[in-house]
């Protein structure tokens, strides 16, 4: 494992922890899109089917379990926790799941490395992860005023994606036969979706003002 | 022939 991959995994982990911390301590999920969180839970559930079939390393298994448990906990908190759920702004978070899930699934049926259930689910999870942040970005645009933790959450997710790209470049030059078009293209699309957010995030950071997105 | 790398990423 290279340093980019490790740093990428750690920022990914940090993003989830920031979110859980916010929900757990402030007992609020204001500004968080339940739609995005549900999509991430679906992403992990479909991608980590190999937990049952392949063993890669203890690190790999543990991280997969952490992402599965944390994503489903976040969804549970927002939907069912008696205090947290009251802060969920249902009327603003209107993105439709199937609008993203269906095209990703159809694309996975057509473009995949192998036509098996496991492969198609894995490919589907990559396509879905690429666009799963969209409901969150739409919600941020709508509410415009973003609290620090939500801003940091999205920033850490974007950092994780950028580090994964550096990891792929590194692996391409250091490992033989390391070519994964599906992973790369969907990963690139995913990272580009953050570009706009990043721009405003850095602007607010540079000028030392509260992050606010233009309408 | 070399098998493709395992999917060891998260």
UniProtKB/TrEMBL annotation, chain A:
Record keywords, A-Z: Endoplasmic reticulum, ER-Golgi transport, Membrane, Protein transport, Receptor, Transmembrane, Transmembrane helix, Transport
GO MF annotation terms: ER retention sequence binding
GO biological process: protein retention in ER lumen; protein transport; vesicle-mediated transport
Assigned GO CC terms: endoplasmic reticulum membrane
Organism: Olea europaea subsp. europaea
InterPro entries in UniProt: ER_ret_rcpt
The protein's name in its UniProt record: ER lumen protein-retaining receptor
Family per record: Belongs to the ERD2 family.
